[in-house]
Design goal:
Shape: rod-shaped
Structural class: alpha+beta
Order of helices and strands: HHEEEHEEHE
Number of strands: 6
Amino acid sequence: MSKKSLQDQLLNAGLVSENKAKQMRSEKRKKKKQKGNDAVASDAALSVQQKKQAQAEKDRQLNEEQKKSAETQALLHQIKHLIEQNHEALPPPDEAIPYHFSYQGKVKTLYISSEQKNKLIAAKLAIAIVMDQFYLVSVQTADKLKQRSPQSVAVLLSEEPKTQENDDYKGFEVPDDLIW
């Protein structure tokens, strides 16, 4: 017996016509192609969906960064506005005396008048910073600045005097004529 397909055997037996055999072959080919295309199409659809999700996540992160940047810019603008409206003018250079203070581990110098220095020591003024520029502002303004951004206030002295007396040495006064 020769190995013939069932279709050829039915055709030889006369049970199926030639047109019907061709139609069956074309349907069989179409089904095979469609199965292959379905797998490729489902992989492509899955890939497209994954790309859309990745793009959406990337867009969301970018939007968050832009929103944070806008909030930071608005806060900086508020701080600048507060300082510009409420800072005390510094004296001309010939009337100024240096005031040294510590800021971020470094000693900075601001030239102010003696009256402003007394107010700073009495905790009636504070030193604020914006864009690497130091300004003298009132304590109320410094409190407002501190609420918005604690880094914007460089020096704010407390009103309570710093009295750290050691009781062990209370009875021993240091003589005035003692030279170190």
